[in-house]
Structures are given as structure tokens and as C-alpha cells.
Specification:
Blueprint (H helix, E strand, L loop, with lengths): L6 E6 L17 E2 L2 E2 H10 L4 E8 L17 E5 L4 H9 L8 E4 L9 H13 L19
Parallel strand pairs: 1-4, 1-6, 4-5
Antiparallel strand pairs: 2-3
Length: 145
């Protein structure tokens, strides 16, 4: 088993949430005491081996400054792009060179569990032939209007 000690996480968060139909972007919507993006970022900050979390945000977005993680030493705010892939690309450009694994997780998906994250990291650590993982979670319920 190859222990992975340096993980970086990129969280694309520059989207406008045009389908969300609210005045604020989905990532800044409150779920209990946290915003969606706080829930996501804080989940990854709980993992010791996560060295850095890069949040790619629209340069004109001011709500990012009010997030609980904004001044966290392991969080870096990077410039987002006009598409998710452009936001990821921008963040990749500033990722530290000593990173073993790069994780990308969307800011608007707050329900990822610690157990699931650790399972993916373990899977990646245990099989040297794996170059990357793309997790797929089956959907058992759906929402309808």
C-alpha cells in the first residue's frame, strides 16, 4: 500500500446557478448553519492528508469573503472561469508541485460523505495501476415537480 499524504482538492464554484431560480448562487445557499460551499470545503478540510483546497470562484463574487473557510491557511481562492472546465484549468495552474493526488469536487454537491472520500483515497492508494478515478453513485430516488 502506497500511503498518500499530499492531496489537493479543486472546488469549481464560479457558476451562476442559472437553473436554481434564486437571487444567490446555489453554492451560497444556506443548509442549516452552513452554506452549500462551506459544507463541501469543510468536509475536505477534515481530512488530514488534504494539504490544500483550491476554490475557483468568479472574480466578482463578494459572498466568498463571508465564508467560514475564507482565511483558512489550507484554502486558496483562485480565479474561476466561464465554464467548469475553465475553472478547473485555472486552479490546476496554481496547484503545488508536491501533490500526490488531485481531487475535483463540484461546489454545489454538498452531500459527499467522509466515508466515500476515504474509500476513494484508499482505492487509489492500494492499486498502482490506477491513473485516476471517476466515482459514480447510483441514484435510487428522484425529484419531480
Amino acid at each position: 500500500m502506497n500511503q498518500i499524504n499530499n492531496i489537493a482538492v479543486i472546488i469549481p464554484a464560479a457558476g451562476s446557478s442559472s437553473r436554481f431560480s434564486r437571487k444567490i448562487s446555489k453554492q451560497f445557499f444556506k443548509i442549516g448553519n452552513e452554506t452549500v460551499i462551506e459544507r463541501v470545503v469543510n468536509k475536505f478540510l477534515e481530512i488530514e492528508t488534504v494539504k490544500k483546497v483550491y476554490v475557483a470562484i468568479d472574480q466578482n463574487e463578494t459572498l466568498i469573503k463571508s465564508q467560514s473557510f475564507f482565511n483558512h491557511p489550507r484554502v486558496s481562492i483562485t480565479q474561476g472561469g466561464s465554464t467548469r472546465s475553465e475553472s478547473v484549468y485555472n486552479a490546476v495552474q496554481v496547484v503545488d508541485n508536491d501533490i500526490d493526488v488531485l481531487v475535483i469536487h463540484d461546489a454545489a454537491r454538498p452531500w459527499v460523505s467522509q466515508k466515500f472520500i476515504n474509500k476513494l483515497i484508499d482505492e487509489f492508494s492500494n492499486d498502482q495501476s490506477i491513473q485516476g478515478l471517476y466515482p459514480v453513485i447510483s441514484i435510487t430516488d428522484s425529484l419531480r415537480m
